[in-house]
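Example protein
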Amino acid sequence: MKPIISLFLTCLFLTVFVSCNKTVRNSTTYFGGKIMNPKSNHVILYAMDKVIDTFSINAENKFGGTLDSIQEGLYYFVHGNENQFLYIEPKDSIMLSLNTWKFDESLVFSGIGAERNNVLIDCFLQFEKDEKTFYGYNSLKPTSFKTKVDSIISLREDTHEAYAKRHPTETQKFKDVLKIALTYPVYARIESYPVSHAKKMKLERFPPLPLSFYEYRKDVDINIDALMYYKPYSKYITNYLYNVTYAERHEPMQNNFTSNFTVDLLNTIDAKVSSKIFKNAFLKQTVISHFYKKSTCDIDNKEFDVYFALSSNEKDKNLVRKLLKDSQMIHKNHEMENFYVRDFTNASYAIRDVIKDKNTLLFFWSAQYVSKPYVRARINYLSNKYPNIQFLTLKIDGDSTDQIKNLDIKKQFFIDRNSGANSFLTSKMTRSMLINKKGVLTNGFASITSRNIYTQLDRLNDN
């Protein structure tokens, strides 16, 4: 990774080069570039959750086009299962170059507006690099930890000031975003310190903190809608909300979040987040992610009742209602309900015949919620770890073109619209079922993203 100062020099050269070759700034805004080893045939540009434009990738792996009525701010582009942010101002002409084999590490911008985007990418890579450093800091006592992070914050504020001095005409809006990119990742780790320290040191209580530990909070705005999808910002808000909830009356938790904690977190979100869009997004994320972490079809209605009372987004609430309905359709200790699946020759099979006399994990998935590379990596890993279990993937609303490469084709199926399985897949969200050799469900709603899945698979593997 390039240090920020050397990146500034690189970007200065690019700016000079572009200036020498283009003396008149275009009146239109342009976005394009070249992607080596493309994973799909297009690039999609977003502002929050709104699609701004879709660009086709040609035979030379290039894409591009003009953007009409563009407003200054943060956007993000998606290619394959990867995405990254960029900052656009009207009349910019931004070109990117990247190799999908090392998506973020290889990403470089050029053209008008490139310098600020290269700086943001460098901040992002530093954020990723800091993971190991801060993990080590979590074992420090609070005063020592605070000394370390204060030093880092000071250096990043100096970097921000240096950039502002070099670019006196830079907009205040971008300077604010740059400060968030530089400092909020550190703030996020300060917010996570009490929990991380307690877990690492195996403490039953959180450590007492200096009065100045959270002094930066007075300068933080947690209700900027335009930054909701920006990782340095959203990660800080998430850590802050969890930390405030823990501080109310909860002790460190090693595994699952209790229902009481989930309820308190939902109420914290309601009290602290005034932005309607932000609030609804965090409420939905919390209630769904906590349910998946438990990896069970057992429902505590209390936390869901609180969610339904606090959220004002009917679309989100309908999705959660479908998820609850799906989870209650099939339960453990019951014989697996029969339904039909298809393989990639379009042959139809009864699921009871496919799983007969075998310990099995059925993984139902949809491209709306999980990517093929993730499914491939996760299922291959679990298959190797648990040789006495067969792992079957079943694509929801799939067809004979939905094969996942480098995953055993004999273990892949799809569910068409006529399958009886659709009765418990109304939300289209991922779910797993664990079934023993007798065809009896040991878990009707498992989650391969949960830590609890390992204990559940251990038991099934040894059965």
Summary: The two ends are 48 Å apart (CA to CA). The longest helix spans residues 172-200. The chain has a mean pLDDT of 91.
